[in-house]
């Protein structure tokens, strides 16, 4: 990996990121295999942080593995599981280990996960975490104390262009920009006309936007996402296209759809890149 994520974003070329899902346990062989598959094909790799409130191997552990194998990691940090002391401490650790990218997340609600008796922390939200990073870069912590050695991160956040109503998302987007976000990875988008309208708003700000692409593997998966994943809407014409695929070829059709969308986003310069989520089909 010859460029940092910040250098890639500043280069003006179409940036590609993807993500790694850590295991639920200490067997990291599959995670390492996915890292090796992807690290030289993308500009950076996210490592999810207890995604959907399911306890897993930590994001920072996956990021260290990416660094060790020559890739560019993006540390995901959810505010759900840590107070401001733990968040700041993990940022210090990440920086000393060469991790230079952070995606700031508030975090999914506890009841959707597998530890329903856990207590969410939510001491900070994602905008406040972004502010914390920028404060720590100035050499201070949230308590106003001097740091013996500051940090420096390329910090980003998420946005949901398919949210209905959209206005609260736009307000949060602007708040995150003001807090110091340099880039955004979106939740999955499938309606390119709708996403283009969102980008007309986003282009007011000096930030980079990477469109989230979740690989569709079947019509059933697409319908499930429509029914169960807030902020994701797969249009009926794409569901019909997947349903019409010959037996055993739905995954190939899903790859075609993803490739077609990415090609349009790139050719028409709608956004600055894509964040591809293969979800087990790396």
Overview of the molecule:
The protein is an alpha/beta fold and 282 residues long. It has one domain (5-215, 269-277): TIM Barrel (Alpha-Beta Barrel), CATH 3.20.20. Helices cover 39% and strands 16% of the residues. Helix 5 (126-137) packs parallel to helix 6, helix 8 runs antiparallel to helix 9 and helix 9 (236-243) packs antiparallel against helix 10 (250-267). The longest helix has 18 residues, at 250-267. The chain is globular, with a radius of gyration of 19 Å.
List the keywords.
282 residues, alpha/beta, TIM Barrel, eight-stranded parallel β-barrel, 8 strands, globular
CATH architecture: Alpha-Beta Barrel
Strand order of the largest sheet: 1-2-3-4-5-6-7-8
Intertermini distance = 19 Å
Task: Summarize model confidence as the mean pLDDT.
Answer: 96
In the CATH hierarchy, the third-tier topology is known as TIM Barrel
Structure classification: alpha/beta
The stretches of 5 or more residues where confidence is low (pLDDT under 50) are none
3D shape: globular
User: How many E-type strands?
Assistant: 8
One letter per element, helices H and strands E, the order comes to HEHEHEHEHEHEHEHHHE
**SS element count, helices:** 10
Which range best describes the helical content: under 10%, 10-25%, 25-40%, 40-55%, 55-70% or over 70%? Answer: 25-40%
What's the CATH first level? Alpha Beta
Q: Which percent band covers the strand fraction?
A: 15-25%
* Sheet with most strands: 8 strands, parallel, barrel
| CA-atom Rg in angstroms | 19 Å
How many structural domains are formed by the residues? 1
């Amino acid at each position: 990996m010859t460029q940092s994520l910040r250098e890639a974003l500043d280069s003006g070329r179409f940036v590609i990121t993807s993500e790694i899902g850590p295991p639920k346990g200490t067997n990291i062989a599959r995670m390492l295999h996915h890292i090796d598959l992807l690290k030289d094909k993308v500009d950076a790799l996210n490592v999810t942080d207890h995604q959907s409130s399911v306890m897993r191997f930590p994001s920072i552990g996956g990021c260290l593995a990416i660094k060790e194998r020559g890739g560019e990691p993006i540390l995901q940090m959810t505010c759900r599981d840590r107070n401001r002391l733990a968040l700041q401490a993990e940022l210090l650790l990440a920086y000393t280990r060469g991790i230079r990218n952070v995606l700031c997340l508030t975090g999914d609600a506890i009841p959707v996960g597998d530890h329903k008796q856990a207590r969410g922390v939510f001491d900070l939200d994602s905008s406040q975490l972004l502010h914390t990073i920028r404060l720590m870069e100035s050499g201070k912590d949230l308590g106003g104390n001097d740091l013996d050695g500051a940090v420096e991160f390329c910090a980003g956040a998420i946005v949901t262009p398919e949210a209905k109503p959209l206005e609260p998302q736009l307000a949060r987007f602007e708040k995150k920009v003001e807090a110091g976000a340099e880039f955004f990875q979106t939740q999955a988008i499938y309606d390119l006309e709708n996403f283009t309208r969102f980008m007309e708003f986003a282009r007011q700000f000096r930030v980079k936007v990477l469109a989230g692409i979740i690989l569709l593997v079947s019509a059933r998966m697409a319908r499930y996402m429509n029914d169960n994943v807030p902020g994701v809407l797969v249009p009926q014409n794409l569901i019909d296209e997947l349903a019409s695929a010959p037996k055993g070829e739905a995954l190939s059709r899903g790859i075609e759809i993803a490739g077609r969308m990415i090609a349009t986003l790139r050719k028409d310069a709608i956004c600055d890149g894509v964040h591809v989520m293969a979800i087990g089909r790396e």
